[in-house]
Write a structure and sequence with these properties.
mainly alpha; single chain; about 210 residues
């Protein structure tokens, strides 16, 4: 005779349980903070690339396509590198190096006024960004208990995908006020400062095995 299905907890209680676990689990909480901050202040650079292509770099639709392709190609190489040699590095190192590397290259992109150099910076930024986000996702799943993993990953998705919409709106408003380069540079600076603050206060994935 099949076992009776377990009774489901009310929605608010179920989400509260997952949120409480994340709040009390410092390394997992730190990952959520880093991902939320990047999604809100850093990832929104993508919506401003058309402005860079036309107004900052003096290009056209082809220039925009090449900038996006450079960013995507860098992300592809980052994914391949993570899959092939990622096991040689600690997850903690991958998370912080990926985040800070992304911030550095986004700042360089914001300051660049040469088209092909901007493509290089975007490619390197995409490479580091995948290393950061993929490793953060893996660390979140491995740190989550089986009975809470689905709900915690839901919070992770909210931190990443939910915040990005708000971040894009903020980036557009900020770019209209102080200009697209300053908006991207400001976002990268905020992400780097939060990353360094979290790094100085606690661990993210020290006790996990390598990738």
């Amino acid at each position: 005779e099949p076992a009776a299905p377990a009774a489901r907890a009310p929605f608010a209680q179920a989400i509260g349980e997952a949120f409480g676990y994340v709040r009390k689990h410092r390394p997992l909480r730190n990952v959520m903070i880093l991902v939320s901050t990047f999604s809100l202040f850093g990832a929104s650079y993508a919506v401003l690339i058309p402005v860079f292509a036309k107004d900052i770099l003096g290009g056209d639709a082809t220039s925009f396509g090449l900038l996006m392709a450079a960013n995507g190609f860098g992300a592809l190489l980052g994914g391949l590198a993570l899959a092939t040699v990622g096991r040689r590095f600690s997850r903690r190192g991958m998370i912080y190096t990926g985040l800070l590397g992304t911030c550095l290259f986004l700042a360089a992109f914001a300051l660049s006024r040469h088209f092909w150099l901007s493509c290089v910076w975007l490619g390197l930024g995409g490479f580091c960004m995948i290393g950061f986000l993929a490793t953060a996702n893996t660390a979140t799943q491995l740190r989550s208990p089986d009975h809470l993993r689905g709900r915690i990953m839901g919070l992770y998705s909210l931190s990443f995908l939910g915040m990005s919409s708000v971040g894009s709106l903020m980036a557009g408003a900020l770019a209209g006020w102080i200009g697209a380069p300053t908006a991207v540079l400001s976002g990268a600076t905020v992400c780097a400062m939060v990353g360094l603050a979290v790094f100085s206060q606690g661990r993210v994935a020290d006790d996990l095995p390598p990738n």
